[in-house]
Amino acid sequence: MSDQMTDHTESASGSEALEAWRATFAANPQRDVPFTTLSGVPVAPLYTEADLPSNTDDAIGLPGEYPFTRGVYPSMYRGRLWTMRQFAGFGSAEDTNERFRYLLDHGQTGLSTAFDMPSLMGHDSDSPLSLGEVGREGVAVDTVEDMTTLFQGIDLGEVSVSMTINAPAAIMLAYYVVAAEREGVPPEQLAGTIQADILKEYIAQKEWCFPIDPAMRIMGDMIEWCSQEMPRWHPVSISGYHIREAGSTAAQELAFTLKDGLTYVEQAVERGLDVDDFAPRLSFFFNAQIDFFEEIAKYRAARRIWARELKETFGAKNPKSWLMRFHTQTAGVSLTAQQPLNNIARTAIEALAGVLGGTQSLHTNSYDEALALPTEDAVRVALRTQQIIADETGVASTIDPLGGSYFVEAMTDKIEADAYEYFKKIDELGGMVAAVKANYPQREIADASYELQQEIDSGRRVVVGVNAYTEGAVDETPLLRIDPSIERTQIARLQSVRAGRDSAAVEASLAALKTAASGSANLMPLLLDCTRVHTSEGEIIDALQEVFGKYTESPVF
Amino acid sequence: MTSQTLDTSAPASARRLRVVVAKPGLDGHDRGAKIIARALRDAGMEVIYTGLHQTPEQITETVIQEDADAVGLSILSGAHMTLVPRIVELLAAQGADDVIVTVGGTIPPDDIAELKQLGVAAVFTPGAPLEEIISFIEGAARKPESL
User: Fold this and answer.
1) Which class would CATH give A56-457?
2) CA-wise closest residue to A364 among A332, A392, A406
3) Cβ B4–A554 below 8 Å, yes or no?
4) Which chain A residues are within 8 Å of B53, Cβ to Cβ?
């Protein structure tokens, strides 16, 4: 898959000691396993000083200083720990509100909202396409009433809130702004993040509403509006998480994600925004897979590439524009349905990689998630895992403790170089939008995931409890069950909102939205108007689809 | 329709099995479905992958039109207890109840038992080896004829 990482040791000073070691090493037998990372990168038996970048000071530097390899802030976790942010959402807005309060009571420091599939795809709960999906994988939100209930009793001026939604992100943001407004919290006080990373939907997560070009326009409208109205808000979380979950390598995750981000910057600049007006509000979201050092190197390389591109390519002057701040989530795909308690160990190791990689916030998966949505007990273990890392292990006492490690620095350089190779290929295809339309990243990911699956099936790569150390009996794991009556309750709730609203005002708001969509006006103010008169998400999406059309994928596998 | 048929050379000894790999419901997790589709194709079967976000009606129509021996349903959204029974029902109503139905995804053990009672031939959860899935479909699809 990739070349041997570096072989500087060959050309090293030729120190006699090293040569002697090399001879001894070669004379001894090695275990018969592939010494490659999870992404297939060969790993040398030993790294030495010769593997460090030649311009160590420039490449590695100091925390809080360009190119930020060692971290985006000068004090990192000595100043403030990462935000422990567990993603939650299921059932009705009331159910999720209860889970949110539970998490805040147990020491969680930020909220993260999971929406159900119909909400992610822009369907109302009573659409025939929503059958069986309402409130299953996240919370059902149809109108601003649901959004208001979701955050009842939580001070939105104080807590930072993350929302994982993409194609309909502008609508959900409008709902959130209006819900907060009702509580007396103006948009400029709202802190948090909305994912809104539409390119990775076509690449990996596959929750779309419109063809790529209009989807990019809606996203651009939202970023522009936020840069003027919501100074504490991150209007996009450029996400590699789903790319990795879909089966990419670490280098692909890094390259496609950063290229998506650079494409959004390019678009905003083309709209006439000053890069320094919005770049400080961009944030990232990466996966933490099980290959410990490869992951740490990935985060370090990501910071360096982003800083360089923003400074050198886009000419950003504000140092805050150069900072790649990111959220991390442990890898859902690394969890196994077999012997689920083993997942606690996997998650702890992955979380530690995120922390040693300098993450700003972290979600740890629960051990039962290969089987169902997590139970409250499983979620608590996951949160406690982060608290153990933070308060017991001592890893947060010093900044970037792995900086200068021969292996980690060499791996950082290698992933960085691989990412630039991908940038080159994408540029040759005409940029990221053209590459996505040509299925290029989709095909690369499908190939990588198939290769990995074959390695696992052949037993060359061990997955404990799956292809090694297996046990016949199935563990009895208590699982969370979603009450199927939630679908009926939610539909009734939506219908009562419809019955109580001014339908002429709804029609007028949708007509105005369609007119604006056919032109080039920013759609955010119109979405806020729709929200205030209780127009539902499905109605807004349907209206926009009349103008923009729908998206159909040609799948590659 | 987003159906796509892929040809590969088959062993001369046996009739090529036709398998529809389908993604019912709204979730976009297609990694598993695509890996299965590719593995079945590499094993010499003719694979029709429906693409994402298919309704039970669309899937049933594809199975009938393609005259499939088996259909593999990949669901990771938690909606399996609504969507799978509906597909089994629609297939039966169309006289296609001889089609082997398998399910893959995050399916809790209690639901597996219930799905099997409804007529689902096998349920594969995360970690199931490709070889096991391939040989199951081979075995199940060929059984009545080869006896």
Assistant:
1) alpha beta
2) A332
3) yes
4) 121, 129
